[in-house]
Amino acid sequence: MTAVQFLTVDQVRAVQRDFGTPVLVYDEATLVRQAREALGFPNAFGLTVRYAMKALPSGAILRLLHSLGLHIDASSGFEVLRAIRAGIPPEYIQLTAQELPADLDELVTAGIEFNACSLNQLAAYGRGFPGTALGVRINPGLGSGHNNRTNVGGPSSSFGIWHTYIPEVLETCAAHGLRVTRVHTHIGSGGNPDVWMKCARLSLDAAAQFPDVTTLNLGGGFKVARMPDETGVDVHEIGAVVRDSLEDFAEACGRKLRLEIEPGSFIVANAGALVAGVMDVVDTGAAGYRFIKIDAGMTDVLRPAIYGAQHPITLVPATDGERPEHEYLVVGHCCESGDVLTPAPGNPEGLLPRTLPEARLGDAVVIGGAGAYCSAMSCKNYNSFPEAPEVLLRENGDMQLIRERQTLEHMLENELLI
Ligand code: LLP
Fold first, then answer.
1. CATH 3.40.470.10 fits 28-265, yes or no
2. Is the CB of residue 310 below 6 angstroms from any atom belonging to ligand 1?
3. Rounded distance, CA 316 to CA 356, Å?
4. Is 265's C-beta closer than 6 angstroms to any atom of ligand 1?
5. Which of 307, 298, 405, 391 lies closest to 347 in space, CA to CA?
6. Distance from the CA of 220 to the center of ligand 1, in angstroms?
7. What is the pLDDT of residues 302-349, one digit of tens each?
């Protein structure tokens, strides 16, 4: 065994020794490569790449991606404030939220871009900021996702304004003198690229109904290959189709639209790995299963437990030498039968053992593809386990701590004893 994801075996052991487990490690080289790839997305009349910070909102990561030229899509007022505190100027931040922040007025006055995601949000914005420009998020009528939890377009999705209500959008805008300069759609994560491209065309149909539109934002959702047998989306291939559609639109409507995309997973998913420790090995007899219990789990990587998501899992033995292989289920440290890292694909209720070298206490287990929606989306503090620290593997090989391990004091900070 030479390398595990972006880490060498020696680096895995060094991380385990120097930071303790569990720990999330991010790879600067992968982040830079993916950001550049996204910035190379084909476009006809200009491109803005907004990093969907919900995927991994740590300040050091936001700062790094911003330094490479990425803007930000924030999904709550709190995310906006987090990005500002990381040093991102407000004019680089767009808010696309389900819940309007209480301090929306201050955020808009500071210079953020607002994307109205419902007719009520649009009216509220219009009352506060009449005569200004904004974006609207439209549900174009179809969606795409790796499963029904990640599909956010079509009739079963509450995200965005249903496309047949565009006349109502125009009416509200007229009432408040608002100009819709950005039409936004995001239909899901990790889905079918054909549906994504079809959505791009439907989004242009929606854009054609807005006389002031200058920008088309097609959201994120580019499928990422985390497992060796998966194929990720070819952004150049889908980008070329989008570019042609924008050119056709310019010819038909006389308007040259700037393109925006909002990748989250595409930028960070494969730039992250969770390094955990084997803290127990148990089995349920000859007809049962062998289990590797790690000192992490749904508190750090929740995707397998809720989506049946597949992440690469590598056992890095603490000692060199040959080991026999066995079929294992890998489970987390929570007292919860659903804390499983080896579910059946797309079926969190099912189990699919993996073949791994014989596990012994003190070995490391590396969960790959853990950059997106892992530290950001976990059962934080369940069973009172602290948040894992985050480390950035710099391009020069240095390991830099970017988030400390949470302490019990942090966890109890806002509790009041009676
Ligand atoms: N833009 C908007 C408005 C979004 O809601 C999202 C993700 C993105 C962009 C980025 O999508 P991405 O490129 O990361 O697929 N937690 C799930 C995915 C749901 C994300 C929700 N919105 C996961 O673990 O795969």
1. no
2. no
3. 10
4. yes
5. 307
6. 6
7. 999 999 999 999 999 999 899 999 999 999 999 999 999 999 999 999
